[in-house]
Amino acid sequence: MKKLLLLAAVAVGYVLGSRAGRGRYEQIKRGFLRVKDDPRVQEKSHQAADLAKETATVATAAAVDKAQAAAAAARDKVTGGSDDTADESGVGWAQTTQTPR
Asked: Is the pLDDT of residue 98 over 90?
């Protein structure tokens, strides 16, 4: 995959910086389209996209778990380790109400 990316970058650089003319540009473009439309390349592209989606899902779940653990640890640190003073808001400290005199 890295080699293909490098090859594509070299080809783009050559096309953009080339003074070989329109004919060479068209030749490179045809070669690129032939590779891009190759069924093997398409299959690998779809596999890479599926892997990226799967990895993103796993990473998101892991990040949520870590964030929840960090929030719980912070809440425990603020409340001194007891959940008696925590309210439903999840802030981690008791909400006091003052009665008017």
From this structure: no
CA-nearest of 83, 50, 2 to 92 is 83
Q: By C-alpha distance, which of 74, 76, 77, 54 is closest to 66? A: 74
Report the predicted TM-score, pTM, of the whole model to 2 decimal places: 0.45
Alpha-carbon distance 56 to 52, whole Å? 6
Q: Are 78 and 92 in contact (CB under 8 A)?
A: yes
Q: How far is CA 69 from CA 17, 49, 73, in A?
A: 52, 30, 6
- Angle between helical axes of 22-36 and 2-17 (0-180°, round to 10): 160
What Cα–Cα distance (Å) separates residue 83 from each residue in 7, 23, 73, 76? 59, 75, 12, 8
